[in-house]
Specification:
about 625 residues; alpha/beta; five-stranded parallel sheet; 19 helices; binds adenosine-5'-monophosphate-propyl ester
Length: about 625
């Protein structure tokens, strides 16, 4: 299959963008007609940002897995769909062709049906990066169940919060996952999570690490046993369920500036069209190429550019179970060499951590198969950009800096590899269908260039967030209420003289630690659970490898051991409540926090202290107790 909608020149890009904003209905109808529909849509798009109500391809009937699997059986049955590289390079890798992946997804769809899973049910998936994770995701989509994948680094408490919010009655997990030298006992974490979730009816467990697990009678079943039952029944077919275009496809939880993580909901048809369109255009995918996205399927990047985007385009997608530094810092390059990877898509934090090992890990690694490099998840600093360009791409591979979010489903701002210009540390130009604008503090549009402002989007693209699960009002207030008639991204951006965008980072209380989104309020709530903590305030600070580190200012009651002991306990508490990814990098015990007379914590001051900009703190006279700032400055860690 070649892609009639693949943009081939800068002129074509300009024409596509123009058409997409002037005639969005025609533009997207043309693209959508390249997919398989059981019934064509009645209306391409219908929207208002006030409620918000966003509908794409209404009246259309579709199943994303038909588009990811069945339609490729004609000409790609024997082409690898998924190449899987295990954590341990000495273990066997696996290759699933489109025919094999289709067969396994059909089989597991039958397993789901036999276990009572129906269209619209929420299914939580908590697994390591193994092919069965992709199979589970696709099988849910095939039966019309709404999957909610939870990253393997989240704690039992986080899982339990998500299960309750989504009222997920079914769980798919595995005994454990390998991550570098670690073996994470996933099923046992699930068991802890389920202590508070008696409504969960069924847990399906895949055997991977052979870690001991306790199977609860009547609730837990083995994946392998259930598959055997389907085989014994003669492997019946499972035609993909016919879904309405706007039926929810999945929920993915993500952090905001307040409260607990919210369940971002994406809809079947729009998400399918947009992830495919961006995959084909941003990376300029060519048939038979091998695409290696190093993200975890627990995050949106894995959903969109390991699973749905590549598979709907009939691509070969590489899934890697391990981490970039195991068994050594040459692992990514070994994988590129071993499979002759053509497209490598990773995060700036991974690039920075590998840069720190110097060039030795690159010795004797043949990277000549690489054609395109990509980054995602956080701003890339120029030093890392140039290292990637020079040492990995050998100055021959365009780098796409892709800006997007869980809520956007797919890439919104990025250069198109080799087609539109790149500029180090700039995401550059919007995708067709995307109209970014910048606003000043007062909410006025800034029309000139060479300016910084709050980044908003004027009109919907097909994979715009539809709602936050179970709480539509939260979706409205978070994204559509800050500025009238606009989607507010929560990011700040600079626009240069050519209209290229550089994302400067979050303008709200959301941190980006190693490309993972974490709300400061969430971390504070977790810290405050510790019995010795009176109050806390969390801010980000620049971190060489992680991009941002977590700095916690904590008022300690003094009643729970020495300061060193309590710091360790606080770290353990955060790990237990959220997961190891949210552990503070620095904890400073303080006797008070800088507050206004009305009791609001002045985070601006704490941020300056955490950043080490002690002489740039500014006016403190409006504080209830200005002296506290001096004390905190002296105790900076
Ligand atoms: O701040 C932006 C940053 O990551 C945030 C979205 O995080 P999440 O929903 O977890 O999705 C990450 C993967 C798509 C954004 O609000 N971000 C993402 N990509 C970039 C980025 N910041 C700068 N440059 C990027 N390319």
């Amino acid at each position: 299959m070649s892609y009639p909608y693949q943009i081939k020149s800068l002129e074509e890009y300009k024409a596509a963008w123009k058409k997409s904003v002037e005639e969005p209905e025609h533009f997207w109808a043309d693209i959508a007609s390249n997919f398989h529909w059981y019934k064509k849509w009645d209306k391409v798009v219908d929207w208002n940002f006030t409620e918000p109500s966003i509908k794409w391809f209404e009246g259309g009937k579709v199943n994303i897995t038909y588009n990811c699997l069945d339609r490729h059986l004609v000409d790609k049955a024997d082409q690898p769909a998924i190449i899987w590289e295990p954590n341990d390079p000495n273990d066997h890798h696996r290759i699933l062709t489109y025919a094999q992946l289709h067969e396994k997804v059909v089989q597991f769809s039958n397993v789901l049906k036999n276990n009572g899973v129906k269209k619209g049910d929420r299914v939580c998936i908590y697994m390591g990066m193994i092919p069965e994770l992709a199979i589970a995701v696709l099988a849910c989509a095939r039966v019309g169940a709404i999957h909610s994948v939870i990253f393997g680094g989240f704690s039992a408490q986080s899982i339990s919060d998500r299960l309750q919010d989504a009222q997920a009655v079914f769980i798919i997990t595995c005994d454990g996952a390998f991550r570098g030298a670690k073996d994470i006992p996933l099923k046992s974490v699930i068991d802890d999570a389920l202590v508070n979730c008696a409504f969960v009816k069924r847990v399906i467990v895949y055997t991977h690490t052979r870690t001991a697990v306790s199977m609860i009678k009547g609730r837990d079943v083995w994946w392998e046993d259930e598959v055997r039952k389907v085989e014994t029944a003669g492997n019946p077919d499972f035609p993909a369920e016919v879904m309405d275009a706007e039926d929810p496809l999945f929920i993915l939880y993500t952090s905001g500036s307040t409260g607990k993580p919210k369940g971002v909901v994406h809809a079947c048809a729009g998400y399918m069209v947009y992830t495919n369109y961006t995959f084909v255009n941003v990376f300029q995918y060519q048939p038979k190429e091998i695409h290696f996205c190093t993200a975890d399927i627990g995050w949106i990047t894995g959903h969109s550019y390991i699973v749905y985007g590549p598979l709907s385009a009939g691509a070969t997608t590489l899934m890697f179970e391990g981490i970039p530094t195991y068994p050594d810092a040459g692992r990514f390059w070994d994988i590129v060499d071993k499979y002759k990877v053509n497209i490598l898509y990773t995060a700036p934090t991974a690039i920075r951590s590998l840069m720190a090992f110097g060039l030795d890990p690159l010795k004797n690694k043949d990277l000549s198969s690489l054609r395109v490099l990509g980054t995602v998840g956080e701003p890339i600093n120029e030093e890392a950009w140039h290292w990637y360009d020079e040492h990995i791409g050998k100055k021959k591979c365009p780098i796409v800096d892709t800006w997007w979010q869980t809520e956007t489903g797919g890439v919104l701002i990025s250069n198109l590899a080799g087609i539109t210009p790149a500029k180090p540390s700039f995401a550059t130009l919007p995708m067709p269908g995307v109209e970014p604008i910048l606003l000043d503090e007062k909410g006025n549009e800034i029309t000139e260039n060479n300016v910084t402002g709050n980044l908003c989007i004027k009109s919907p693209w097909p994979s715009t967030i539809r709602t936050t699960y179970g709480d539509h009002e939260r979706c409205r207030t978070n994204y559509f209420a800050t500025y009238e008639n606009l989607y507010f991204t929560g990011d700040g951006a600079y626009r240069d003289e050519n209209g290229f965008y550089r994302i400067t980072g979050r303008v709200d209380d959301v941190l980006n630690v190693s490309g993972h989104r974490i709300g400061t309020a969430e971390v504070e709530n977790a810290i405050n659970m510790h019995a010795g903590v009176v109050e806390s305030a969390v801010v980000g600070y620049p971190h060489d490898v992680k991009g941002q580190g977590i700095y916690a200012f904590v008022i300690y009651s003094g009643t729970h051991g020495t300061p060193e002991m309590v710091k360790k306990d606080i770290t353990a508490t955060v790990s237990r409540i959220i997961g190891p990814i949210a552990k503070p990098d620095k904890i400073q015990l303080v006797s008070g926090l800088p507050k206004t007379r009305s009791g609001k914590i002045m985070r601006r001051i704490l941020r300056k202290i955490a950043e080490g900009e002690l002489d740039k703190i500014g006016d403190t006279t409006t504080l209830l107790d200005p002296a506290i700032v001096e004390e905190i400055k002296k105790g900076k860690v």
